[in-house]
Design goal:
Blueprint: H1 7-27, H2 40-75, E1 81-82, H3 83-90, H4 94-103, E2 107-116, E3 121-130, E4 138-143, E5 154-159, H5 161-170, H6 172-175
């Protein structure tokens, strides 16, 4: 149709090249623009429909909020990193990074002892946890297979991607 010399084809080609393609280049699409309401009553009806649609979407957000929270808290653990991995990435020994995090009030350590059947003696146990203001940077991953810590399920403190970025940004001088 584009290569044809018929009058209809020429008119079509001019319309395509003069109107459709330039509009697509400018706006990314070609179509009729939404017509403005003709009357005040039509405008009010459209406004009411928009408000109703917005309220329905906000209600859905409220309904989905617990699901989103659950996924954020429990499902996305594959993105979590060990502190050892973060330390290696920024070129710092794990112990030095851990001590720097404790010194700056990002994490704290708890000490306890437990009886080790394997070693037949009391052994020291340390558990690391994040302070509440840095909670977004760390996540305790429960270890149900490990011995209990002070009557609680033991956890391994892992670093979120946001936490790894913050650690890399704030602890570069530890690496020097």
């Amino acid at each position: 149709m584009i290569r044809s010399d018929k009058a209809e084809a020429v008119a079509f080609r001019r319309w395509i090249t003069a109107e459709v393609l330039p509009t697509i280049r400018k706006t990314g699409s070609y179509g009729a623009a939404a017509a403005l309401p003709a009357t005040y009553a039509d405008a009010l009806r459209e406004l009411a429909a928009t408000v109703e649609q917005t309220a329905a979407l906000e209600a859905k957000i409220q309904i989905d909020s617990p699901k989103v929270s659950y996924v954020d808290q429990f499902v996305a653990d594959e993105d979590l990193l060990l502190l050892r991995t973060v330390a290696k990435t920024i070129g710092v020994p794990e112990g030095e990074l851990r001590e720097a995090l404790i010194a700056r009030g990002w994490i704290y350590e708890e000490h306890s002892t437990r009886w080790s059947e394997k070693q037949q003696e009391l052994v020291k146990v340390v558990r690391y946890s994040a302070y509440s203001q840095k909670r977004a940077y760390f996540r305790p991953v429960l270890r149900h297979d490990a011995p209990r810590f002070k009557g609680e399920v033991m956890h391994t403190l892992k670093v979120t991607p946001q936490g790894a970025e913050a650690i890399a940004r704030n602890f570069r001088e530890v690496a020097v």
